[in-house]
Amino acid sequence: MGEISSPASTAISAPPSPLPDSAPRTPRSPLASRLMTPIVSPMKKAITSVHGYLEEVGQFTKLDPQDAWLPITESRNGNAYYSAFHTLSSGIGVQALVLPLAFTTLGWTWGIICLLLVFIWQLYTLWLLIQLHESESGTRYSRYLRLSMAAFGGTCVILVMIGGGTLKTFFEIVCGASETCNVTRLTTVEWYLVFICAAVVLAQLPNLNSIAGVSLIGAITAVSYCTIIWVVSVIKDRPVGVSYEPVKEISDVATIFSILNSLGIIAFAFRGHNLVLEVQGTMPSTAKKPSRIPMWRGVKFAYLIIAMCLFPLAIGGYSAYGNLMPGNEGMFDALHKYHNHDTSKVLLGLTSLFVVISSLSSFQIFAMPVFDNLEFKYTSKYNKPCPWWLRSGIRVFFGSVEFFISAALPFLRNLAALIGGIALPITLAYPCFMWIHIRKPTTYSAIWGLNWALGILGMVLSILAVIGATWSLATMGIEFHFFKAQ
């Protein structure tokens, strides 16, 4: 891990650019400035006024003009608080609710071991990316660009399905099944539309720093619904017929494929956590105070909270439901299936509402790299920032595409293990290879061997998890219904 050798007063800058130093700022959307500022500004003031363990960094970095036009690097006044909020909001998602499903095949011992190993592994790769963000030449790598487009665009589709479906559940809890509720009942696809409209409105916030308040709210709601779900599940009576014996398959080959499928489910719970480069790109950085220091502080704090949510959720969920754990949304479905009759409607409704708010927040974070890439194409071609109407149009267009895919392919939400297996290298393998390629550690050194081993193991696990998930889908079956969201 090389140290930056430039003088302490020199700011770490992006690569030289032919653009003029007096480059204009990106125009702001009237909707963002009039409607969002009253919400975001007080939140930002409150955040920056707090002092303690997570403290702000020093000087502002000298920006490449084109970076100042793009959503991720437009504002580089972020701090460790912001990194913690963004990491929490994206790190605790509804994907964690399916973790107990992996235990039905792996059992207690191997389930906990695999969950712990993957957690430590992906935390290590996050540390690698944080260190790689700033090179010794002063270049800052602020985007996991192409991988972000592939992984996070698909993540947004899942969020639309889960958020829209949970909105429908929330409405049914509030309105009830009685005939006295005369409100028109929407279809599932119409609830998808309601969710995506709300997401597109929030997406008018211009850059990653401007959604810090949204991320904070998303993090709070994510921690809240995870805690509510596992606590209620544990304290309530267990369903009749609960068993903790690993599911017996008809053959050894089937058992192996089921185990691989379970590993894909665990990987799905940790997918897409490599937004660390984008978040770190919003921070100021100097040779004396590089951004990796506050970024790692924020990530450590965030992952302490994430661990306090994911492990009780997985262990408590399996303890409560065992092999009776339903598919799809896992713990959320189990709570409503087994405890709908003996749990307060207020608590059930609040849990659903928290899931919706958390999904809206996560949508903003996972969509930002896509917005950034689309705007980058415009600024590179025309050598000027996107006008506000085009920036808004990009967000509306992206939301429309996500809605169309959600409505056309509603079965995608059932492919958790397959998606986890495909996305596994992004989290567990590629950062190890990037470290070797960029830092060039001494051949046969410990760090060289560790990263080669983890990188190759990550690729092999990805292939095996995809094979296992495909086998499970082929043997257990899945309904491929198009334009028929249930």
Overview of this protein structure:
The chain is mainly α and 486 residues long. It is built from 15 helices and no strands. It has helices at residues 30-49, 80-91, 99-132, 145-175, 188-202, 212-235, 252-269, 276-280, 292-321, 331-339, 345-382, 388-408, 416-428, 430-439, 446-476. Helix 3 crosses helix 7, helix 5 crosses helix 11 and helix 14 (430-439) runs antiparallel to helix 15. It is globular and about 60 Å long. The N and C termini lie far apart (51 Å). Residues 1-22, 35-40 and 46-62 have low confidence and may be disordered.
Please describe the structure with a list of short key phrases separated by commas or semicolons:
486 residues; disordered N terminus; mainly alpha; single chain
Q: Give the overall average pLDDT.
A: 79
Classify the secondary structure makeup into a structural class: mainly alpha
Gyration radius over CA: 23 Å
> Percent of residues in beta strands?
under 5%
Spans where pLDDT lies below 50 across 5 or more residues: 1-22, 35-40, 46-62
Q: Number of helical runs?
A: 15
| Number of distinct beta strands | 0
Molecular shape:
globular
Biggest sheet descriptor: none
What level of helicity do the residues show?
55-70%
Output the helix-strand order.
HHHHHHHHHHHHHHH
Measured between the Cα atoms of the first and last residue, the distance is: 51 Å
